[in-house]
Specification:
Blueprint lengths: L10 E2 L9 E6 L7 H4 L1 H6 L5 E4 L5 E2 L7 E2 L8 H26 L6 E6 L1 H10 L8 E5 L9 H4 L6 E6 L8 H12 L4 E6 L8 H17 L1
Parallel strand pairs: 2-3, 2-6, 6-7, 7-8, 8-9
Antiparallel strand pairs: 1-3, 4-5
Helix pairs in contact: 3-4
Length: 221
Amino acid sequence: MTPSIELTGPRHEPASGGKADSLVVFLHGLGADGNDLIGLAPVLAQLFPDTAFVSPDAPQPCDMAPMGRQWFSLQDRSPAAMLAGAETARTALDGFLNAEMERHGLAANRVALFGFSQGCMMALHTALRRPEPLAGVVGCSGHLIAPERLADDVTARPPVLLVHGEADEVVPFAAMGAAEQALRAAEVPVEAHARPGLGHGIDQPGLELAARFLLKVLREG
């Protein structure tokens, strides 16, 4: 039996100083760690003073860099290997999400995922297979793992925002269109936004798109 992995990482408690009424979970990319995205929390907290933020470190040391973490290895990028890796990491991430919901006393519809690159892959792969839909998923510069399986595997359909740079040199820009097509085919609400000239990253307009989406799913939804 594979031992369970407990994830941990930096936190940003509600700016209001009160109890969290919602939670945003950042999922970092390959070779980074939770510190990579938690810096977005103080920016978003200006709009979400009662929201808690957490950015867990991925479960494995990165095997393609001298430091950092990975959700799963990308040395073998065959579809079967990536699916197997994502499935293993999903077990740890699901456990983390369940623990965080219990910690804050929040229902699934008060929790949003914000993933970048490999973290985007994990956000999509996990959220669409949860027992209950989360509030929403922001996916930046990633792609959808095993799109051909989604229609059969999907158990939850949270709204999804995809943002991708047209000049991405790491994850091809075409990945966003492929993900959007598969999500729509599986009846998952999705909006996709291209960022002209942007490489593999999150720019200010992309962050503003994410903020508006989170306002909709956490404040109006």
